[in-house]
Amino acid sequence: MTTPNQFNPEAFIELALSRGVLKFGEFTLKSGRVSPYFFNAGLLNDGEALSLLAQGYAAQLMACNDVEVIFGPAYKGIPFVAATAVALSQQYNQSVPWGFNRKEAKDHGEGGVLVGASVAGKKVWIIDDVITAGTAIREVVEILKEAGASIAGVLVALDRQERGQGKLSAIQEVQKELEIPVHALITMKDLMDYLEQKGDQESLASMQAYRVKYGI
């Protein structure tokens, strides 16, 4: 059994910066808000980056007692869940079944929208990059419940810790509406702590102003 690696938020932030996954500056989001940072997990597209992310997901999952199946929503969640299954096996000697969904159902072969391990009667953790509006997560939860799964929780890479249309963040809305826990590897506060540690006062000031305006 391999000795587990502790997830290091600072190391992950630095890797994200080096890959262009995380950028500080001025970015207009789909919501119309002008954000002082941008996070695109789709750029975690090499082995080292994906491995580090998977180690973080695996460490979080090992702190839970109800991991029976892990599930990655199409499309970004698919490599994340596969890599996490490998990390759980190699680091913790835990062989956890995994699966994902198709965007469109097949009418031949194995058919349906679900691929991989059966979720019927199982406690399922959903693994994804971020929750922006929560629409995609709600759709996946519905698909899994229709297949007989019990949703144990959701694990994401980043929690932006900002309000949606109301007083709650998208993550808080999902937790309240669906009554499931949502955990994140890093948060906006982690990004601010990193900037403060590195002495980047300009970016930190922009983050602080954004948090005052939109933070939870």
From TrEMBL:
First-level EC class: transferase
Sequence positions that bind 5-phospho-alpha-D-ribose 1-diphosphate: 30, 75-76, 102-103, 106, 108, 128-136
InterPro entries per UniProt: OPRT, Or_phspho_trans_dom, PRTase-like, PRTase_dom
Domain Phosphoribosyltransferase stretches: 48-169
Keywords: Glycosyltransferase, Magnesium, Pyrimidine biosynthesis, Transferase
Catalytic activity: orotidine 5'-phosphate + diphosphate = orotate + 5-phospho-alpha-D-ribose 1-diphosphate
Enzyme Commission code(s) on record: 2.4.2.10
A GO biological process held by the record: pyrimidine ribonucleoside biosynthetic process
GO cellular component, one term: cytoplasm
CDD domains on file: PRTases_typeI
Coiled coil: none
Any one Gene Ontology molecular-function term assigned to this protein's record: orotate phosphoribosyltransferase activity
Pathway: Pyrimidine metabolism; UMP biosynthesis via de novo pathway; UMP from orotate: step 1/2
Residues holding orotate: 38-39, 132, 160
Signal peptide: none
Cofactor(s) this protein requires: Mg(2+)
Function noted in UniProt: Catalyzes the transfer of a ribosyl phosphate group from 5-phosphoribose 1-diphosphate to orotate, leading to the formation of orotidine monophosphate (OMP).
Annotated family: Belongs to the purine/pyrimidine phosphoribosyltransferase family. PyrE subfamily.
Subunit structure and binding partners: Homodimer.
Protein name according to UniProt: Orotate phosphoribosyltransferase
Gene name per UniProt: pyrE
